[in-house]
């Protein structure tokens, strides 16, 4: 007769986790000697009715609880800012001091010992710790419940040691030290996680370098788990914490942020951001989250981001500008003339500044009504990038789209013509010869295209101190 303890996952159910990996990688399963690569071992088969209690399936009344995500090095305000994003992923993170130790190694992952799934390690740490249920050779079963129930996975695995158990009403958790990464968790299922001690998975090197008055120069470094679900959110959380960490010298600060991401096979992708005001840091981190998620979650495959380097420069004041007025100074205009434009800016706690631009009127525009646009990065992107993302037919197209993103500390001046251009594979094309347009716009085109409503005939930009926002357009009639 088999007796069961309610709330304890049977080992037979956990062993089935190996079947999932065997289905995904049958050749590796045979080489590694997974116990279940041809189906569950008869030794571990549950007895008939063992999963029943009074005729009611246990899984209808008991549900496995995932391991808590423990986070160290991140403040409560930063976690609150991203609480909704964590909740969307079904996780309520816990602040807990996670220690590191170099005294643990692969041999310390044994039956009954703690083991960690590592999402980020270094100055910022994100991990979940549970107990090893079974180890044979390099194969490991642990937890007896899911971490995230993410299914097929490639999560770094590390030995751990439990200092104490913290009992709390929201959920008890283990206060732990985590050792170096020594293997991979390749399955995260409802009944268990399964992993292999050996070569660790690839991780993303992340660094945040901070300079500025009133604060010592600092650098935070970490390694990040490569995951569609988690990489963007964890990196954005670390970015916001790096920004929040600088808010010591002055209540009014402006952050100049440059982000460089090295994408395998595509080279660097760079972003410039300026953050100012009470919510500026969060907007910068959230914008980065959206861009990173686009690299990870798209129809063409997850980009392998090899490294992320963030440079943060701080100024102890709010620096921002807004559009006050624009004015066309020229009289009658003809092709070949320059349109003289004056732009006046409001500057925070400073006098207004006036800037002049000479916009060349191109040939072939006689009798037309053109449009002069002056605006911030978001407004200029809305003009140029409308519909572009829908035309991307490869990961390269997604990267083209991201590389075209403008900086929010520049003012953009454009001369526009109402005309139909085309958006092709993440790029915006202007007016095309009729034959080329007909080919791209036909059913024979190998890539999707969309129309754009205007074509940029000329563009320039002006770097302004701090953040710039505002937009305005004026008509320009050409004789």
Quick summary:
The protein folds into three domains: 11-70 and 96-117 and 130-197, no CATH class; 203-315, Ubiquitin-like (UB roll); 320-477, no CATH class. Helices cover 19% and strands 41% of the residues. It is built from nine helices and 26 strands.
Topology:
Layout: H1 11-24, H2 26-32, E1 52-53, E2 56-57, E3 70-72, H3 76-81, H4 83-88, E4 94-95, E5 99-100, E6 114-122, E7 125-136, E8 139-142, E9 151-166, E10 173-178, E11 183-188, E12 193-197, E13 203-211, E14 218-225, H5 231-244, E15 254-263, E16 267-276, H6 280-296, E17 305-315, E18 320-328, E19 338-347, E20 350-360, E21 369-375, H7 377-385, H8 395-403, E22 410-424, E23 427-429, H9 434-440, E24 449-463, E25 467-469, E26 471-477
Parallel strand pairs: 3-4, 5-10, 13-17, 18-25
Antiparallel strand pairs: 1-2, 3-7, 6-7, 6-9, 6-14, 7-8, 8-12, 9-10, 9-11, 11-12, 13-14, 15-16, 15-17, 18-19, 19-20, 21-22, 21-26, 22-23, 22-24
Helix pairs in contact: 1-2, 5-6
């Amino acid at each position: 007769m088999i007796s069961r303890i309610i709330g304890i996952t049977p080992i037979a159910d956990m062993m089935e986790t190996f079947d999932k990996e065997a289905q995904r990688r049958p050749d590796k399963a045979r080489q590694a000697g997974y116990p279940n690569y041809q189906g569950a071992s008869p030794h571990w088969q549950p007895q008939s009715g063992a999963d029943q209690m009074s005729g009611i399936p246990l899984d209808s009344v008991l549900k496995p609880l995932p391991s808590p995500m423990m986070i160290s090095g991140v403040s409560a305000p930063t976690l609150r800012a991203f609480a909704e994003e964590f909740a969307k992923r079904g996780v309520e993170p816990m602040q807990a001091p996670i220690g590191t130790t170099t005294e643990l190694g692969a041999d310390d992952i044994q039956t009954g010992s703690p083991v960690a799934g590592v999402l980020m390690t270094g100055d910022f740490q994100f991990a979940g710790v549970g107990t090893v249920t079974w180890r044979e050779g390099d194969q490991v079963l642990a937890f007896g419940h899911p971490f995230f129930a993410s299914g097929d996975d490639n999560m770094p695995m590390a030995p751990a040691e439990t200092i104490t158990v913290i009992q709390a009403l929201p959920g008890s958790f283990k206060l732990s030290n985590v050792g170096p990464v020594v293997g991979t968790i390749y399955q995260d299922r409802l009944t268990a996680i399964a992993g292999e001690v050996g070569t660790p998975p690839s991780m993303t090197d992340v660094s945040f370098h901070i300079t500025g008055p009133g604060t010592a120069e600092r650098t935070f470094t970490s390694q990040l788990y490569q995951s569609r679900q988690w990489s963007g959110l964890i990196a954005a959380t670390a970015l916001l914490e790096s920004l929040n960490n600088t808010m010591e010298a002055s209540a009014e600060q402006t952050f100049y942020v440059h982000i460089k991401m090295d994408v395998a096979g595509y080279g660097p992708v760079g972003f410039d951001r300026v953050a100012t005001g009470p919510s500026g840091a969060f907007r910068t981190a959230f914008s980065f989250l959206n861009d990173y998620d686009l690299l990870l979650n798209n129809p063409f495959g997850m980009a392998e981001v090899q490294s992320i380097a963030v440079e943060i420069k701080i100024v102890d004041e709010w620096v921002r500008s807004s559009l006050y007025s624009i004015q066309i100074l020229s009289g009658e205009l003809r092709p070949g003339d320059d349109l003289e434009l004056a732009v006046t800016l409001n500057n925070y706690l400073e006098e207004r500044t006036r800037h002049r631009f000479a916009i060349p009127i191109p040939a072939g525009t006689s009798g037309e009504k053109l449009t002069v646009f002056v605006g911030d990065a978001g407004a200029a992107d809305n003009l140029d990038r409308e519909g572009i993302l829908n035309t991307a037919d490869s990961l390269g197209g997604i990267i083209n789209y991201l590389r075209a993103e403008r900086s929010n500390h520049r003012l953009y001046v454009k001369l526009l013509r109402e005309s139909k251009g085309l958006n092709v594979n993440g790029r915006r094309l202007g007016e095309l010869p009729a034959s080329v347009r007909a080919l791209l716009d036909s059913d024979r085109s190998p890539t999707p295209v969309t129309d754009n409503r205007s074509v940029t005939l000329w563009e320039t930009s002006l770097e302004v101190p701090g953040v710039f926002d505002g937009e305005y357009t004026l008509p320009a009639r050409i004789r």
